[in-house]
Specification:
Helix content: 25-40%
CATH class: Alpha Beta
Largest sheet: 7 strands, parallel
Strand order of the largest sheet: 3-4-2-5-6-1-7
Distance between the termini: 28 Å
Radius of gyration: 14 Å
Shape: globular
Strand content: 15-25%
Number of strands: 7
CATH architecture: 3-Layer(aba) Sandwich
CATH superfamily: DNA polymerase III subunit chi
CATH topology: Rossmann fold
Structural class: alpha/beta
Number of domains: 1
Order of helices and strands: EHEHEEEEHE
Length: 149
């Protein structure tokens, strides 16, 4: 059964949320896991794409934004909407930056939800928490202090 982790950051910055997603992706990539980062739309996917290249000067996380191609050689993919092809090719870690739980989440071994103190994000991640809890998924929360975020 899918395990779900909620990472609670002390900041209200959506940029900090995205940076933390990049850190999680980098850590999972170094451990050899497949990662799918799910966003709400193309603009957010492209923002994550750019941030993965620049969030740390000494970091390298090869990745691609979802496309209609069937290339599954990337361990890290970024997608949005219904995630036509990319999410189907992954089953390791889903980093969900979308405002809702994607319908394909249960194909993954792990799901990471990143919470910041922005009212819209708090509301959507609370709804996501209830969704997973009400269906019996194993939930873990991690409070991240300012130095770790």
């Amino acid at each position: 059964m899918t395990k779900v982790d909620f990472y609670i950051l002390p900041t209200d910055s959506i940029e900090d949320r995205h940076r933390y997603a990049c850190r999680l992706a980098e850590k999972a990539y170094r451990l050899g896991h497949q990662i799918y980062i799910h966003s709400d739309d193309n603009a957010q996917a492209n923002a994550i794409d750019q941030l993965l290249w620049s969030f740390r000067p000494d970091s390298f996380v090869p990745h691609q934004v979802e496309s209609d191609s069937t290339d599954s050689s990337h361990q890290v993919e970024i997608g949005f909407a219904d995630a036509k092809g990319s999410a189907a090719q992954h089953n390791g870690l889903l980093i969900n930056l979308s405002n809702s739980v994607p319908e394909f989440f249960s194909r993954f071994n792990r799901v990471s939800e990143i919470v910041v103190q922005h009212p819209d994000i708090k509301e959507s991640t609370r709804a996501n928490y209830r969704f997973y809890r009400d269906r019996g998924y194993a939930l873990q929360t991690h409070t991240i202090n300012q130095a770790d975020s």
